[in-house]
């Protein structure tokens, strides 16, 4: 309980008192890295894609953030069904991030 109160104070002190709800969907092998096919996140207003991946990593797989940012894990990344290339892509309340591993076959 005390920890929650302290976190709320930090958020308000930074002027980030409004939280955005973001949905992350993982498809294909991407869900193997997270162990889930969908995760709901709450992020402060002004958060970027990299912030969402960091929080997703904290909730699912500690290596995910580092390996996503350094390019070790290759994902096709969509925000609201549109491809994005930069982890500095800004997010809005209600956005949906989709992570898909590129698959090849023949």
List keywords for this structure.
106 residues, alpha+beta, Ubiquitin-like (UB roll), five-stranded mixed beta sheet, 4 helices, 5 strands, disordered N terminus
Describe the structure in your own words.
A hairpin with a 2-residue loop joins strand 3 and strand 4 (82-83). This protein starts with a helix and ends in a 6-residue tail after the last strand. It has helices at 2-13, 30-34, 49-59, 64-69, and strands at residues 19-27, 38-44, 76-79, 82-83, 96-100. Helix content is 32%, strand content 25%. The chain has one domain (17-100): Beta-grasp domain (Ubiquitin-like (UB roll), Roll). The longest helix is centred in the N-terminal third of the chain and has 12 residues, at 2-13. It has 106 residues and is α+β, with helices and mostly antiparallel strands. The protein contains four helices and five strands; from the N terminus they run αβαβααβββ. It has a five-stranded mixed beta sheet.
Structure summary:
Helix content is 32%, strand content 25%. With 106 residues, it is an alpha+beta fold.
Record the SSE blueprint.
Elements: H1 2-13, E1 19-27, H2 30-34, E2 38-44, H3 49-59, H4 64-69, E3 76-79, E4 82-83, E5 96-100
Parallel strand pairs: 1-5
Antiparallel strand pairs: 1-2, 3-4, 3-5
- Which band does the percent of strand residues land in? 25-35%
Number of domain modules: 1
What oligomeric state best describes the polypeptide chains here? single chain
Provide the gyration radius in Å.
Answer: 15 Å
Pfam families: ThiS
InterPro entries: Beta-grasp_dom_sf, Mopterin_synth/thiamin_S_b, ThiS/MoaD-like
Protein name: Molybdopterin converting factor, small subunit
